[in-house]
């Protein structure tokens, strides 16, 4: 059972009044809303920002905590050895004291923004330890009684969870971390000391490494009191709330606090209403976690207004990451966060974090890699791939809740896998109307192919820009690749050095096709994967699986990837018999029909000119609602029912299984499944809306086994396509190869 602690406190009349006001058009300031909730609503800033009157007023009005963005780092405080300059940082502390704000010191030890004398000095191990001790002692002592919280060590781990090769690690080894905490504690025994890092929100390999680090420090008796996760996120790359909750709970079990320390959620320029709403949803998730858990007492954003954000300087083509725009106007993100804490103050906060999906078996069929029956030179020749199964790049994971694909002429592709002994071979066929590979500062924003392999808790990410070799990686493997001259075909081989054979094994697997059409100064608009997800493959998330077939060998029962669920969210006032109203569905997950299960060796769907479609689902009470958009160059509704153009829905609730079919233009066919249901088509057969009552009291928080298919018959005789959201061999009508539909509260 999930264990948690909900923050409590005595809410004064003023706090309750603020909460009531927050539900009105003009919400009360955030710092007033959270009075009595033991929560710091913070912001990072520089001294120069206070010269902007509107900035200073917004800071004092809305926030009860501040973090010096840069001016407590080494290059500011000790630009010359032994000479400390506290002037700018002192001004921030003075502002905080005058406005009754908590100060978080940031950061005592980091690998960036160090002075030249430190970065380029030739110091012995003993000298480096002394330099660290002198600096930490001087800084923490100077602010003793004024700075309560310190980010003692910042970003000691690399992106894969290994040790970052900083000047401190090279000189002192991993022990420098414990020493830094000990020095800080000695200088101020009352200070709260924290380890801070990015990409550590959930249960990724890096987050797992951070957990192991702080657990080890605790076991060693090191004075550490909390862990900070920065939460520099991206609209469309939705964090797994269940995983963040699970991470918070394991940190809680260590007796440590958990802080959101540097929140911003960037998006590509220009900002759209849809993107701003997606951003608000993500801010809301973090606010709910903060409100729910006692141990989460910091909700700090890395800035106040987009006017002074660091984002455009570090991430070309991105901006708009904060809760206030450049004119200090509140965004939907601010409204969402304010409402969460106002609901908490008014006693109306009844949210609970979703539990991680149980391991209920394989719900997304593994991709198949057959054994190669001939030599596999990397030369682009398609003939050697006759024994391979081709799969589509099916989901655009950069779209947030909209995972549908761009036009196939803009970007599309398919891939296949084979193996020989311990070598994985892959082929990617890519169609793109524009190729961009010139962003050298942010290579992930270029047109590329990325391959992800999972080995237990370890994983490898391997990237090749179009026309280039795979970039060097720490993954121990022999890696080779070939590109055709026009960039339409990639072939590769990966031979892991620690793997003796792939035959009969199953690995975590994913592959991505990135597309940038805006040029080297901008970012990608698409990152296509064969599985749904939130573009977290680079953190070891949202993996599918690959099964390396062998004679008399079946796929392992133990999952090597993550369970993938499709999601239905609450909806109000939906009537399937009324005309389609997009406004009711704009903030609902949107999925494509992606895999043609009628073709066992090429599950890539036909051209979009022939057949393609998308689907959304939602719910109210015990009723499942949905809408299907269908684009077909020819409609056939006569002949055997299953051979017509139709939509089929497969549902299993407990022991009850049903296959529901609606031929284009017609209601669901009759059957004995309990409950009411209706399917309604528009006149031209391009939109079907449906409602299905299920035999449960309420769907909220539940999951069911599910699948949905779009059938296409173009010759009047039999179907040429049966498109599903998952790979398989068209056995859903038997109750097999069903996936999971999760009803989000």
TrEMBL record:
<keyword id="KW-0378">Hydrolase</keyword>
<dbReference type="GO" id="GO:0031176">
    <property type="term" value="F:endo-1,4-beta-xylanase activity"/>
</dbReference>
<keyword id="KW-0624">Polysaccharide degradation</keyword>
<dbReference type="Pfam" id="PF06452">
    <property type="entry name" value="CBM9_1"/>
</dbReference>
<dbReference type="InterPro" id="IPR017853">
    <property type="entry name" value="GH"/>
</dbReference>
<dbReference type="InterPro" id="IPR010502">
    <property type="entry name" value="Carb-bd_dom_fam9"/>
</dbReference>
<keyword id="KW-0732">Signal</keyword>
<protein>
    <recommendedName>
        <fullName>Beta-xylanase</fullName>
        <ecNumber>3.2.1.8</ecNumber>
    </recommendedName>
</protein>
<dbReference type="InterPro" id="IPR001000">
    <property type="entry name" value="GH10_dom"/>
</dbReference>
<dbReference type="GO" id="GO:0030246">
    <property type="term" value="F:carbohydrate binding"/>
</dbReference>
<feature type="domain" description="GH10">
    <location>
        <begin position="24"/>
        <end position="340"/>
    </location>
</feature>
<dbReference type="Pfam" id="PF00331">
    <property type="entry name" value="Glyco_hydro_10"/>
</dbReference>
<keyword id="KW-0119">Carbohydrate metabolism</keyword>
<keyword id="KW-0326">Glycosidase</keyword>
<keyword id="KW-0858">Xylan degradation</keyword>
<comment type="similarity">
    <text>Belongs to the glycosyl hydrolase 10 (cellulase F) family.</text>
</comment>
<feature type="signal peptide">
    <location>
        <begin position="1"/>
        <end position="27"/>
    </location>
</feature>
<dbReference type="GO" id="GO:0045493">
    <property type="term" value="P:xylan catabolic process"/>
</dbReference>
<dbReference type="InterPro" id="IPR044846">
    <property type="entry name" value="GH10"/>
</dbReference>
């Amino acid at each position: 059972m999930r264990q948690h602690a909900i923050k409590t406190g005595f809410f004064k009349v003023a706090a309750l009044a603020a909460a009531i006001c927050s539900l009105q058009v003009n919400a009360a300031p955030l710092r007033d809303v959270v009075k009595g909730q033991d929560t710091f609503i913070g912001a990072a800033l520089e001294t120069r920002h206070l010269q902007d009157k509107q900035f200073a007023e917004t800071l004092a009005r809305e926030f009860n905590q501040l973090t010096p963005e840069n001016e407590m780092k080494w290059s500011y405080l000790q630009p010359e050895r032994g000479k400390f300059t506290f002037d700018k940082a002192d001004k921030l502390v003075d502002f905080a004291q005058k406005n009754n704000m908590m100060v978080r010191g940031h950061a005592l030890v980091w690998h960036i923004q160090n002075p030249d004398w430190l970065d380029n000095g030739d110091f012995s191990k003993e000298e480096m330890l002394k330099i660290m001790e002198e600096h930490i002692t001087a800084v923490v002592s100077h602010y003793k009684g004024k700075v309560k919280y310190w980010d003692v060590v910042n970003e000691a781990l690399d992106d894969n969870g290994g040790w970052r090769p900083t000047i401190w690690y090279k000189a002192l080894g991993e022990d420098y971390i414990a020493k830094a905490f000990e020095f800080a504690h000695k200088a101020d025994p009352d200070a709260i000391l924290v380890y801070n890092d990015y990409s550590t929100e959930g249960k990724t390999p890096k987050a797992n490494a951070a957990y192991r680090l702080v657990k080890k420090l605790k076991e060693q008796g090191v004075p550490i009191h909390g862990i900070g996760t920065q939460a520099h996120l991206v609209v469309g790359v939705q964090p797994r709330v269940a995983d963040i909750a699970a991470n918070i709970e394991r940190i809680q079990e260590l007796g440590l606090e958990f802080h959101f320390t540097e929140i911003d959620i960037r998006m590509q320029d220009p900002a759209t209403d849809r993107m701003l709403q997606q951003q608000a949803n993500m801010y809301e998730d973090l606010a709910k976690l903060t409100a729910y858990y006692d141990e989460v007492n910091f909700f700090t954003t890395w800035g106040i207004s987009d006017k002074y954000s660091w984002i455009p300087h570090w991430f070309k083509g991105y901006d708009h990451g904060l809760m206030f725009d450049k004119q200090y106007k509140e965004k939907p993100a601010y409204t969402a966060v304010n409402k969460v804490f106002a609901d908490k103050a008014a006693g109306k906060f009844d949210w609970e974090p979703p539990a991680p999906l149980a391991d209920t078996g394989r719900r997304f069929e593994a991709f198949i890699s057959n054994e190669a029956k001939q030599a596999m030179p990397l030369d682009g020749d398609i003939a050697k791939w006759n024994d391979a199964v081709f799969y589509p790049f099916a989901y655009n994971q950069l779209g947030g809740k909209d995972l549908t694909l761009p036009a196939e002429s803009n970007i599309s592709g398919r891939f296949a896998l084979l193996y020989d002994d311990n070598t994985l071979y892959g082929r990617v066929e890519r169609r793109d109307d524009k190729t961009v590979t010139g962003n050298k500062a942010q290579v992930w924003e270029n047109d590329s192919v990325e391959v992800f392999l999972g080995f237990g808790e370890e994983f490898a990410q391997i990237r090749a820009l179009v026309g280039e070799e795979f970039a060097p990686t720490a993954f121990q493997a022999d890696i080779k690749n070939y590109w055709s001259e026009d960039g339409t075909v990639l072939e590769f081989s990966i031979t892991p050095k620690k793997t003796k054979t792939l035959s009969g094994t199953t690995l975590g697997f994913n592959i991505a096709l990135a597309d940038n059409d805006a040029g080297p100064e901008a970012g990608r608009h698409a990152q296509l994967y064969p599985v749904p997800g939130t573009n977290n493959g680079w953190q070891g998330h949202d993996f599918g699986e690959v099964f390396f077939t062998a004679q008399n060998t079946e796929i392992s029962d133990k999952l090597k990837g993550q369970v993938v669920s499709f999601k239905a969210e609450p909806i109000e006032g939906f009537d399937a018999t009324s005309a389609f109203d997009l406004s009711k569905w704009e903030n609902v997950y949107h999925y494509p029909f992606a895999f043609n299960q009628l073709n066992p060796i090429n599950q890539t769907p036909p051209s979009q000119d022939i057949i393609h479609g998308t689907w959304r689902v939602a719910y109210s009470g015990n009723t499942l609602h949905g809408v299907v958009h269908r684009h077909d160059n020819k409609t056939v509704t006569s002949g055997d029912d299953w051979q017509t153009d139709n939509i089929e829905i497969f549902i299993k609730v407990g022991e009850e299984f049903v296959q529901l079919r609606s031929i284009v233009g017609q209601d669901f066919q009759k059957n004995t499944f309990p409950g009411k249901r209706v399917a309604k088509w528009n006149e031209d057969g391009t939109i079907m809306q449906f409602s299905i009552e299920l035999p449960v009291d309420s769907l909220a928080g539940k999951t069911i086994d599910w699948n949905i298919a779009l059938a296409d018959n173009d010759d009047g005789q039999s179907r040429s396509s049966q498109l599903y959201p998952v790979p398989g061999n068209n056995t859903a009508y038997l109750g097999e190869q069903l996936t999971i539909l999760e009803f989000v509260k």
